[in-house]
Specification:
Layout: E1 12-14, H1 22-28, E2 35-39, H2 42-46, H3 49-59, E3 63-67, H4 76-87, E4 93-98, H5 100-112, E5 136-140, E6 152-156, E7 162-166, E8 174-177, H6 187-206, H7 212-234, H8 239-259, H9 263-275, H10 279-295, H11 299-308, H12 317-328, H13 341-348, H14 354-358, H15 366-378
Parallel strand pairs: 1-8, 2-3, 2-4, 4-5, 5-8
Antiparallel strand pairs: 6-7
Helix pairs in contact: 4-5, 6-7, 6-8, 6-10, 7-8, 9-10, 9-13, 10-12, 11-12, 13-15
Length: about 375
């Protein structure tokens, strides 16, 4: 068995209505200021979730500032704007509230507020991240990205290139999982974020850097998604399904935080760069086109994935995955996007995506990348 390490886990609090005790949790972090900054996005504001959290905090005497001037995936200018607000305040506690985009904006802005450099200075680890000074709490409102658990934050540069920053500095001080916050999420978002969690778990289980602890977490996450995703889509108020999906997302995040992701994410990031396709949908496209090919490299592991999704021993993982995607109603077509295979293959193998390509269950070369790109574009 190869050597491995497992780190970066901070306290996780789970429970329906758990956010009602948020003020006490902030006090327990020895936060020395009454200033709170909630970083969220416009959709979470519209759903009334930000107002709920703000009210809880203000009733306890906190002064709350809300930064929510963004939609979709995070851009460098958004992160820099949030960091500028934090720099003008005295030691605020930062709360990331929302999906992966809001959490990544919160994680990165809270860290770079300690320095004067813009966030693009830290892209692809070009510069080491500053040491954290501000207390940071992440509260996901979707079940998918697992961003609350990772040492990575993803954002688009000023020229649209999708890149990442990485480091243990990005791990928050506290994670709160409250399934009640996910109930208002539309079915389409529940579907693509849930499949994102599934892809995270599947890649963590099959990629080159997997280890026994990540294996256990990843396989359990696959089981939970297989058991709960469709019910969460069909019956949004089913708290058991919502709870199962939220836990699946978080433990999948814990798994791939240790192992990294694979080829489905190199495809997904390339599609986001070229066509702005939502992350969960894009990585689902990537996994769908890769899975049968990957299975040849580790048939036993992929058979275990099929079983975790409820299929009989020896069943094809690609069949099991596609069946769940179809039931979730997620479109896998690139029709109308204008993406061409050669460009897609080139971006898949670019500097920012190469770590994922190299960590895939099976090595992806330039010819392989072009084959997959053509399959994606021509389907």
């Amino acid at each position: 068995m190869k050597n491995f390490s497992f780190s970066g886990i901070k306290p996780i609090l789970f429970g329906v209505g758990r956010v009602e005790n948020l003020a006490d949790e902030i006090a327990a972090l020895n936060n020395e200021t009454s200033e709170i900054v909630i970083i969220s996005d416009a959709g979470v504001v519209q759903a009334g979730i930000v107002e709920r959290i703000q009210s809880i905090l203000e009733r306890s005497g906190f002064n709350v500032t809300v930064f929510s001037e963004f939609t979709g995936e995070p851009h460098s200018e958004t992160i820099d704007a949030a960091a500028a607000i934090l720099r003008r305040m005295k030691q605020p506690c930062v709360i990331g509230l929302g999906g992966g985009s809001a959490l990544d904006v919160a994680k990165l802005s809270a860290i770079i507020a300690e320095a004067k450099e813009p966030v693009e200075s830290y892209a692809l680890c070009a510069e080491p991240l500053p040491k954290p000074r501000l207390k940071r709490i992440m509260i996901p409102t979707t079940a998918g990205t697992g961003a609350e658990m990772t040492q990575t934050a993803v954002f688009a540069t000023c020229n649209g290139r999708k890149v990442w920053a990485w480091g243990p500095e990005l791990v928050p001080d506290l994670v709160i999982l409250d399934p009640s916050l996910t109930v208002s999420i539309p079915g389409t978002i529940t579907a693509i974020t849930g499949l994102d969690a599934l892809v995270h778990a599947m890649e963590a289980f099959t990629c080159q850097q997997h280890n026994p602890i990540s294996d256990a977490l990843a396989l359990q996450a696959v089981k939970l998604v297989g058991r709960h995703l469709i019910q969460a889509i069909k019956n949004p108020s089913d708290m058991d399904a919502r709870s199962g999906m939220l836990i699946a997302s978080t433990i999948a995040g814990s798994a791939f935080a240790q192992t990294g992701t694979g080829g489905a994410h190199s495809i997904g990031h390339a599609l986001a760069t070229l066509a702005g396709i939502p992350h969960g949908q894009a990585v689902t496209m990537g996994m769908d086109v890769l899975l049968g090919w990957n299975t040849q490299a580790s048939p036993g592991r992929h058979a275990a994935l099929a079983e975790a999704l409820g299929y009989k021993s020896g069943e094809n993982a690609a069949t099991a995955f596609r069946a769940l995607v179809d039931r979730a109603g997620v479109d896998l077509s690139l029709a109308g996007t204008g993406v061409d295979p050669e460009t897609l293959a080139r971006v898949m193998l670019s500097e920012e995506n190469m770590p994922m390509t190299q960590n895939n269950a099976r090595a992806i070369g330039p010819e392989d990348a072009l084959v997959f790109a053509r399959l994606l574009v021509e389907r």
